[in-house]
Amino acid sequence: MKELDCYERSINGVVVMVEPYSQKQHTQQVIYRILDANLDRGREGLRIIEEWCRFGLDDPQLAQECKQLRQELASWHTNELRAARDTPGDPGTQLSHPQEETRGSVTSLLQANFCRVEEAFRVLEEYGKLYKPGMGQAFKQMRYQVYTLETRMMGYQRHQLLWRSHLYLVTSSNCDNLFETVEATLKGGLTLVQYRHKTADDIIRLEEAKKLKELCRTYGALFIVNDRIDIALAVNADGVHLGQQDTPVAIARQLLGPQRLIGRSTTNPGEMQKAIAEGVDYIGVGPVYQTPTKQDKPAVGLEYVKHAAKNCSIPWFAIGGIDTNNINDVIDAGASRIAVVRSLMQAEQPTLVTQYLLSQLNRVGSESAD
């Protein structure tokens, strides 16, 4: 095989002449550097995820899974691979992207690092086939483990955030500034958004859902799609909200899996108990007051709110005509979570109204704690 000519190389700022070696040896060194870089990348990403499992979720099992994966990576990180490292000569150390400079939330941080680990494992799977027998298959299996870990962990995150969410925005189709309004509420501290548009074409729904999903991801909020399981899956939403006449919960769960959220509208105690038995993650209780959003449904008043406060074992949101004028009546009836449409979608200052509604709801939580 033809030898390479001598060439200059900078090592720690000093230019030296490097002895020629065969093309095969050169390719081998390149593969070693790729494997070394991605083993480091995978271990770093896993450590970031592990720290949140340990300190953020207080989940020893998830933390242990991350640790075991890191240790398995370490077993493949041989001295031979480490010796090929050339940090000063690596052009990748100078590459960056604006999205890497900041993280909008813990959720976006975790998702970025899961992507980082999965990409590293894919590289290790392919280039590992050129290094040692069994390495490609080993990293294929580890990549699937990470996919499963991500699903479980993000599902855990979703359920935790659902329990912490006390104000729920349902979008309306007659808002001229949909994205600006939703972002304004997110800036005010909102952590739960449902996209609802009954009349738009699917292309428009898909585009709007994608943009809203990205907004919610940036601010660390949950994103739910009304009715449409297909759109929820297409945009990787956190779940769906179903009415009484929509897809049965069992089928929705089969399609969405155990980690995504499913909500159900209820108007009476019977529907509430059925929804809980079907395994939904939360329910809507209402409409408390008459609202144009639900013209076909009579208001159920505060009695159903009082019943839910005493009997509902899962998160529930009072909904229907609730605004800044009557929120305290709903709270007095036992509600600690509410869902609104017009109060925020038609507000002149959505951020301030969001902050006010949250302050009233948080006050209830503080008094309960006392």
From TrEMBL:
Q: Identify the residues that bind Mg(2+).
A: 227, 246
Q: Give the keywords, sorted.
A: Magnesium, Metal-binding, Thiamine biosynthesis, Transferase
Q: Which residues form the ThiD2 domain?
A: 33-151
Alphabetized CDD domains for the sequence = TMP_TenI (cd00564)
List GO terms (cellular component aspect): cytoplasm
The protein, known as: Thiamine-phosphate synthase
Q: Where is this region: Unknown?
A: 1-145
| UniProt-listed Enzyme Commission number(s) | 2.5.1.3
Pathway in which this enzyme or protein is active: Cofactor biosynthesis; thiamine diphosphate biosynthesis; thiamine phosphate from 4-amino-2-methyl-5-diphosphomethylpyrimidine and 4-methyl-5-(2-phosphoethyl)-thiazole: step 1/1
One family from Pfam that matches here is TMP-TENI
Give the matching InterPro entries.
Aldolase_TIM, ThiamineP_synth_sf, ThiamineP_synth_TenI, ThiD2, TMP_synthase, TMP_synthase_cyanobac_bac
HAMAP family, alphabetized: TMP_synthase, TMP_synthase_cyanobact
Q: Where is the Thiamine phosphate synthase/TenI domain?
A: 167-343
Binding positions (2-[(2R,5Z)-2-carboxy-4-methylthiazol-5(2H)-ylidene]ethyl phosphate) = 291-293, 321
This chain's source organism reads: Mastigocoleus testarum BC008
EC main group: transferase
Q: Which domain of life is it from?
A: Bacteria
Protein family (similarity comment): Belongs to the thiamine-phosphate synthase family.
The top of its lineage is: Bacteria, Bacillati, Cyanobacteriota, Cyanophyceae, Nostocales
Q: Please give the residue ranges the record annotates as the region Thiamine-phosphate synthase.
A: 146-370
